[in-house]
Design a protein that fits this description.
Structural class: mainly beta
CATH topology: Porin
Radius of gyration: 22 Å
CATH architecture: Beta Barrel
Distance between the termini: 48 Å
CATH class: Mainly Beta
Oligomer: single chain
Helix content: under 10%
């Protein structure tokens, strides 16, 4: 009995001594996006459409790995007269390696996109997958993702998988 108590106390003391506090780091930023590969959305042409948005990232401070949860939203400015507005927002996971000058990563998650034309709004969702790089000393990133979207029967032309190129900067973390 005394042996078990001594062993339990030793393990508890070792865990308390070795344990380090883990603080998640929050980063906030702004990003610009370029949508390519989309020929028709609601009978509108979105290929080459630019957008602006925000990004937030939560990541634990692990020395060599760059992991985190990323939330983002982008409002696009369609040139086509058919679309009144178009936006995307998503949540994903990021995994990469941290090097002194550049940190390459892959990102995947779930994306929602919403288009409004003539007072009619259609929303669809689907998975995303891509990759990017973040510069070491400057909080700048460049990323390319492809959106795999579900087709909604009421949507007219949501049968495309756009490639989105994003660049931006992050603060904090």
């Amino acid at each position: 009995m005394m042996r078990r108590l001594l062993m339990t106390a030793s393990v508890a003391l070792a865990c308390a001594t070795v344990a380090q506090p883990v603080d998640a780091q929050f980063s906030f930023g702004a990003q610009g996006a370029l949508m390519t590969g989309v020929e028709e959305v609601q009978a509108g042409d979105m290929n080459g459409t630019m957008g602006l948005g925000a990004r937030v990232q939560v990541s634990p401070p692990i020395p060599v790995l760059s992991i985190g949860v990323v939330g983002q939203g982008v409002y696009y400015f369609p040139d086509d007269a058919v679309l009144d507005n178009y936006m995307t927002y998503g949540l994903g996971a990021k995994l990469g390696f941290s090097f002194p000058l550049v940190s390459p990563y892959i990102i995947g998650g779930w994306q929602w996109r919403r288009a409004e034309a003539g007072g009619v709004t259609d929303t669809e969702s689907g998975g995303t997958f891509g990759g990017g790089v973040q510069l070491g000393m400057i909080p700048v990133f460049l990323e390319a993702t492809i959106e795999f979207n579900d087709e909604i029967p009421t949507a007219q032309n949501f049968d495309v998988n756009p490639l989105v190129i994003q660049a931006g900067f992050m603060f904090g973390g």
